[in-house]
Design brief:
This protein is of the alpha+beta class and 474 residues long. A hairpin with a 7-residue loop joins strand 14 and strand 15. The chain starts with a helix and ends in a 6-residue tail after the last strand.
């Protein structure tokens, strides 16, 4: 942010900020702070950024995700600043000083918008540093920024002299300097933050999918090994039926396997140290162990497949979703199962305003609902789906749950209504770019959420299919 632009912004801010009360201070990212201010008439948000080439100060209308637990420097500012008395550009440089009051008296917040060396320094009324956003220890004897040290202004950079004499101009008379800077920086910043967070979620989901796919292969291999467990039972029963022919000390015996038609001879290995009865019991134990193992493997495979289906649904939603609220709800879902550990506590769990499912109207006037995340899908499939309604989902692919509220109106349901709802289900699915998509649809009574199932997962007991062209309302 150039010095001339800083002066314009500060000049505007002095009319709003002087005497304003600080109701809250947030730190949504390591180098950005938001001051929530009350002027006596309006609530304002002052953004302060020391992010290298994006360093700036201005009022903002954008909202930012805030940490559940404020970082160290943010906590200090909350404790020391309750009012802003002055705002000035100092040393004819890209440095702004906020004169502040707090419970412990007068203090000053120096905002150094000096590119890669940008920083925030809180100083007491004697010029001694209380603390610094980015602490700096310099053994070369130059500038030190640590608590307890005297604050010294940085050396003036010739950068400001090379800015040129042309003054920045407002794009039109309706925008202030603060609004201009807010639009210039904040839109790209919010987009970057959202995309970075989305990427973090996508990486968490991709890692778990890869882990579960490996587990699935391992379970399938174990299942193949356990496949012949019933043969152990047959050996045990053949031995019991022929105990009179078995003697301790034998290592094998050949018996007629009457389970086969026609009966064939079968060789059975024996432990010479065991009695005939004990050898039979050993095979029974192997049978029971194999049966338990296969049941356990089947249960683990079902659980793994259900979790994979859930994660693939999240993977699609992260690729398709555009709203911050949807991304945040996906993040909450991942946190609840321990798959997301936020960096820098910037997106820690907090109370969110629940987003609502999307709505449309089909040709006959019936309401259609569909979800863009698992919480919305779960809500419309378990709470909003009533008798007389129809449920839609793309066949064998991740996608939105779609509900046609056919039970609400005393109107005849047309094929065009079913086709319209099915087209939306195809459009809001991973198959949205295909020319033709198979969609399953079912009556409400056939759709049930499995006990303990993850959000957005349902069992469909009976359904029909329809082939449609995908359609979206965006």
């Amino acid at each position: 942010m150039k010095l001339k632009l800083i002066k314009h912004v500060v000049s505007e801010l002095s009319a709003f900020l002087i005497g304003s009360k600080v109701s809250k201070i947030y730190q949504p990212s390591p180098e950005i702070l938001i001051f929530k201010l009350w002027t006596g008439r309006d609530t304002l948000r002052l953004l302060v950024s020391v992010e290298g080439q994006k360093s700036r100060l201005h009022l903002t209308e954008h909202t930012w995700p805030n940490p559940h637990i404020p970082p160290r420097f943010c906590q200090l500012l909350r404790a020391r600043i309750t009012r802003i008395d002055t705002i000035d550009v100092v040393n004819d440089d890209r440095i702004i000083k906020l004169g502040c009051q707090g419970t412990q008296g007068l203090c000053h917040l120096y905002i150094e918008l000096t590119g890669n060396r940008g920083n925030l320094i809180l100083v007491d009324d004697q010029g001694v540093i209380i603390d610094v956003l980015k602490r700096i220890t310099d053994d070369s004897g130059k500038r030190v920024l640590l608590a307890g040290e005297r604050y010294l202004l940085p050396e003036k950079n010739n950068f400001n002299l090379r800015e040129g004499s042309a003054l920045p101009t407002l794009p039109n008379g309706s925008c202030s300097w603060n609004q201009t800077v807010d639009k210039l920086y904040s839109q790209s910043q919010c987009s970057d933050n959202k995309n970075d967070f989305r990427k973090q979620l996508q990486q968490a989901v991709a890692r778990q999918i890869k882990k579960l796919q490996k587990r699935q292969l391992s379970i399938e291999r174990d299942t193949l090994k356990q496949k012949d467990y019933d043969a152990e039972r047959i050996r045990a029963e053949l031995l019991l039926a022929n105990l009179h022919s078995v003697r301790r000390g034998m290592t094998e015996i050949v018996l007629q396997n009457y389970y086969q038609q026609p009966a064939k001879e079968q060789q059975i290995l024996l432990d010479p140290l065991l009695t005939p009865q004990e050898n039979a019991e050993k095979y029974f134990q192997r049978f029971k162990k194999g049966k338990r193992g296969q049941e356990h493997s089947r249960r683990r495979l079902e659980e793994t497949q259900a979790e994979l289906e859930w994660l693939q649904q999240l993977e699609y939603q992260l690729q398709d979703t555009v709203k911050n609220s949807d991304i945040e709800e996906i993040a909450v879902e991942l946190r609840e199962v321990g798959l997301l550990k936020d960096k820098n506590r910037l997106h820690s769990k907090r109370t969110l305003q629940p987003s609502k499912p999307h709505e449309a109207t089909c040709p006959s006037g019936f309401k259609i609902l569909w979800g863009r995340n698992n919480r919305q899908n779960d809500e419309i499939s378990t709470k909003m789906l009533k008798n007389g309604d129809f449920w839609f989902h793309v066949y064998n692919a991740p996608g939105a749950h779609v509900v046609l509220k056919a039970g609400q109106l005393n109107t005849e349901l047309l094929d065009a209504d079913l086709y319209y709802a099915a087209s939306l289900a195809a459009g809001y699915s991973k198959s949205k770019d295909d020319d033709k998509v198979t969609v399953m649809f079912a009556e409400a009574k056939a759709v049930h959420k499995p006990k303990g199932g993850k959000p957005g997962l349902v069992n469909v007991l009976q359904y029909k299919t329809i082939v449609v062209k995908p359609f979206r309302i965006d």
